Amino acid sequence: MQNIPEVKVGIVAVSRDCFPMSLSVGRRKAVVEAYRKKYGEIIECGVCIEKETDVRRALDELKTCGANALVVYLGNFGPETSETLLAKEFDGPVMFAAAAEETGDDLIDGRGDAYCGMLNASYNLALRGIRAYIPEYPVGTAEEVADMIADFLPVARGVIALKNLKIISFGPRPQDFLACNAPIKRLYDLGVEIEENSELDLFEAFNKHENDPRIPETVKSMEEDLKSGNKKPQILPKLAQYELTLLDWIRDHKGERQYVAIAGKCWPAFQTQFHFVPCYVNSRLTAMGIPVSCEVDIYGALSEFIGTVVSQDVVTLLDINNTVPKDLYTSQIQGRFPYDIKDTFMGFHCGNTASCKLSFYEMRNQRIMARTLPEEYTNGTIEGDLVPGPVTFYRLQSTADAKLRAYVAEGEILPVATRSFGGIGIFAIPEMGRFYRHVLVEKNYPHHGAVTFAHNGKALFDLFKYLGVDDIGYNQPKSLPYPGENPFSR
Fold it and tell me: Could you give the angle at the alpha carbon of 289 between the alpha carbons of 285 and 294, nearest 5°?
């Protein structure tokens, strides 16, 4: 996919001066060998840090080798001052891990005490206010540390990407969409740049692309994508004109940023002026790795981008929309799947989900808008049931008073026909009913949630922690009540 960074991770060993440096170096080499055997290339820094003067040498070598993420590896106890200064000075995400002892036959000169050293490292990181990724259990064998580094990669990708992201928005949110409130202060805190534009700016740019010579080629691409689902061929030239407008806007406005996401306007005036809806084009850009959120949902676009980077796959943005009717649940779900009816719901949006994430699809008109507008103004949405399989539902959001909150919940899309319209699927998340009440409702989340089509909860949770999000909700099991949950109602 385009629009996401490549992580080049480097590893630096550290050594306390009263321990043999050879112990830390040898253990580093073992980690590198294990990682390369299982996962691929890693940059092995030849400098083993024992004192502060070693830090600059290591940083210079890492920069020369192109490392943009760092593993600080305690092969023995480690020098907490030098190792945390390294983390502070490195321009990128940092992970700390430590070596387990190898054998009971070598616990004199071969004992490294890194288990102890990790405590000092974490304490010194906190003293200096340095954020670092520390695995759930950060001490292990060479093979285990290699696995920890692999778990670090999606987190590192997310951190790198956000520092180089620009969100481009068009137009104010529609009336009554205060739920998509987007205080931009926390975007800047995350390192994200934002460019807010009028929808008139977009309309002007669109009109300038009339008769763009690239339109026929883009129409052909759309025809190849839609295949037999191309039920509105007459609207494709306008959609192609709009897609080229957005891509050119990105090219001309990304500035020094490497990555882009868009928070787009899609109603109420969009369809009456453009004479189509942008849903299908939004889905195509999202499939390219450039997420486009609906209804000028800036934090929805941010969340989609995060999921794209973490999963390295196409994502979508959906309304947490409607309950599953009891008769549908009884006939199609009960007894076939291990879910209560309150574990299920329908995730829906008008048609912004990419065709590759739909079981079947057709180009249609937007039915909700067509209730009050001429149908020909509402063409341009792609409809179909979402592909069944594992999913992660999540969102990063700033509250009105500029506090970051997030939620992450893993579940699945069931292989059950929705019998409805739009881009839609029947979702099942364990304990969804309680999660809905005590996280989504209780903490005032909007109705939009981002979706990855895999279980990415671990990486998303760790990334949100790395970004400094203290309040991360998830679908807690029955044995773990939510704060404020009435114990007598269960």
Answer: 50
Count CA atoms within 13 Å of residue 388 on its CB side.
8
**pLDDT tens digit string along 101-110?**
988 888 888 8
Top-confidence residue, 65 or 376: 65
Task: Please give the Cα distance from 464 to 426 (Å, whole number).
Answer: 27
Q: Is the pLDDT of residue 300 over 70?
A: yes
64, two tokens: 């020369």
Q: Give the strand pairing for 404-413 and 471-474.
A: parallel
Biggest CA-to-CA distance, the chain:
83
Cα separation, 192 vs 161, in Å, equals 9
Q: Is the pTM of this model over 0.90?
A: yes
pLDDT for res 179: 65
Bridge partner residues of 138 (DSSP) = none
85 phi/psi in degrees, rounded to 5: -65, -35
Task: Locate 363 and state its tokens.
Answer: 């180009």
* DSSP code for 133: B
The answer for residues whose C-beta is within 8 angstroms of residue 90's C-beta and 6 or more apart is: 59, 62, 70
Q: Please write down the HEC assignment for all residues of 136-150.
A: CCCEECHHHHHHHHH
Q: What is the DSSP string of 44-62?
A: E-SPPB-STHHHHHHHHHH
